[in-house]
Design goal:
Strand order of the largest sheet of chain A: 4-3-5-6-7
Number of helices of chain A: 8
Order of helices and strands of chain A: HHHEEHEHEHEHEHE
Number of strands of chain A: 7
CATH class of the largest domain in chain A: Alpha Beta
Strand content of chain A: 5-15%
CATH architecture of the largest domain in chain A: 3-Layer(aba) Sandwich
Bound molecules: zinc ion
Oligomer: homodimer
InterPro entries (chains A, B): DNA_Rcmb_RecR, Rcmb_RecR, Rcmb_RecR_Znf, TOPRIM_dom, TOPRIM_RecR
Function (chains A, B): May play a role in DNA repair. It seems to be involved in an RecBC-independent recombinational process of DNA repair. It may act with RecF and RecO.
Protein name (chains A, B): Recombination protein RecR
GO molecular function (chains A, B): DNA binding; zinc ion binding
Keywords (chains A, B): DNA damage, DNA recombination, DNA repair, Metal-binding, Zinc, Zinc-finger
């Protein structure tokens, strides 16, 4: 791209273009929208990013993101500590929360096993999951993983690893369409899959 | 949207969702990408936005955006001061610069006349354009406006207003597809339309 907009604006466009969903063209549109709406958009977004950079951290219990550690969900005494819902990423946790079908705790794996991408168990938060599942009072681990090859491989691997802990291991029902990533599903589908979950 | 990700992250998602090209879902993905790539993406974008908010201003001559006023283009002595290219918005100016087919100066109107949206001449930078066009040494004003109803209405209005100034008034050739916004065009189309421009 020619440096037509000055180095500061080109740098801003370049960074915006790295966001998923924004290509080089839409990044330019976004930069322009920001620069035209300085007080309503540019300044607040700048503040929100600075605050997120300074304050948001990873929950040492579940792996979610929050400004407190343990996170608000892990600290919430009204939530059912006997249920742990395992998700691939924080985006899937957010989708579960929006669906409002689950009132237990979470465990963010940080990815899926993948032979193709060379992701093994050590790259995921599997050990901490087994440890949490073995704590007294934990009754059920729900594997809310995508219905993809990697998702199902990971689910079966986790079911084996959790066999030693005295917990029921379940999976989301087949309401999740094949190949479907959780965070692209509508809330109703997620709620239904949660209600109809089955043993792994 | 349920406040599933904590107020700070929800605020960030809400602001990202206001960017053109990002809906609520892609804004969540973007927020997650930012939070996962703190050092490579979140911190640099936060800095770039803060710098843009502090340093980028509107050029008092042409209406473009830059960290200096007059902007780099208006200050560039190697550019042809006898040509003024009128564009709707800064995004169109950037598109012209990327096409590399124009080495004169610009004038950013700040919009188009629109009966429907109630945009009259006073809402646009028409007076300053007429003043600039009347300065000695200005030879041609090129109306690089979109080939839409509002774009063409605006072009004809400007041609009338510029009749008193001793300048040639031209328009981009019909290489610009009907309904086409300049900043979505490929560079070759823009360059061709510039070369084949015709009297307004
Ligand atoms: Zn937590
Ligand atoms: Zn300028």
């Amino acid at each position: 791209m020619a440096a037509s907009a000055g180095p500061e604006i080109e740098r801003l466009i370049g960074l915006l273009a790295k966001l998923p969903g924004l290509g080089p063209r839409s990044a330019r549109r976004a930069a322009l929208a920001l620069l035209k709406r300085r007080d309503q958009l540019l300044a607040p977004l700048s503040d929100a990013l600075a605050e997120a950079a300074a304050r948001v951290k990873t929950c040492s219990t579940c792996g979610s993101l929050d400004t407190q550690d343990p996170c608000a969900i892990c600290s919430d005494g009204t939530r059912d500590a006997s249920l742990i819902c395992v998700v691939e990423e924080v985006g899937a946790l957010w989708a579960m929360e929006r669906a409002g079908a689950f009132r237990g705790r979470y465990h963010v794996l940080g990815g899926l096993l993948s032979a193709l991408d060379g992701v093994g168990p050590d790259a995921l938060r599997v050990g901490p999951l087994v440890a949490r599942a073995s704590e007294p009072g934990v009754r059920e681990v729900i594997l809310a993983l995508p219905a993809t090859v990697d998702g199902q491989t990971t689910a079966h691997y986790l079911a084996e690893r959790l066999a030693g802990a005295e917990v029921t291991v379940s999976m989301l029902a087949r309401g999740v369409p094949v190949g479907g990533e959780l965070d692209w599903l509508d809330d109703g589908t997620i709620a239904q899959a949660m209600r109809a979950r089955r043993p792994a």
